[in-house]
Amino acid sequence: MRGRRGTQAWVPPAWVAWGAVVAAFAFAAVSLVWATGSTAGLDTLGGSIERLGRERHPGLLAANAVALVLKILGGVLALALVQPWGERLPRRPLLVLGWSGSAVLVLYGTLQVTTLALVAAGLVVPDEVLSDRALRWRLLLWEPWFLVWGLLLAGATLRSQRLRPA
């Protein structure tokens, strides 16, 4: 594929696309655990989320169920971008979903990581204090996971767009 000036356009490697698949389904597995009412790992979230999770609050269980479905759909989207069967799907909607999903994930992850970094640095005092453990887990794993997943999904979308132009 040629770029604008006749140069070879860069295509992300296949592992980027597969990384988006793994990130989505691994994240879905975590939501499945919490959607079923498990309290495993809730102390890594802290605050009201932890409290509601320990109480098995129906609203939080429902939110986790919705998150589970969205994450599974994100994994299916990533698969559609990397698998041959995805070529049978309408290109434009697939690419719009890929770019939109990656934008939302990157924006959300960036905002969350930035906010938590400001909290960790003592520059922002949150309404709800998190334990040091929860702050570390959220800053180093949970929130960056959205950012990384979004970047991987963007790479998968770009790969698909460049290898199979509309």
Automatic annotation (TrEMBL):
Bilayer-spanning residue ranges: 59-82, 94-119, 139-158
Keyword terms, alphabetized: Membrane, Transmembrane, Transmembrane helix
Lineage: Bacteria, Bacillati, Actinomycetota, Actinomycetes, Micrococcales
Top-level taxon of origin: Bacteria
InterPro entries given in the database record: DUF3995
Name recorded for this polypeptide: DUF3995 domain-containing protein
Species the sequence originates in: Cellulomonas xiejunii
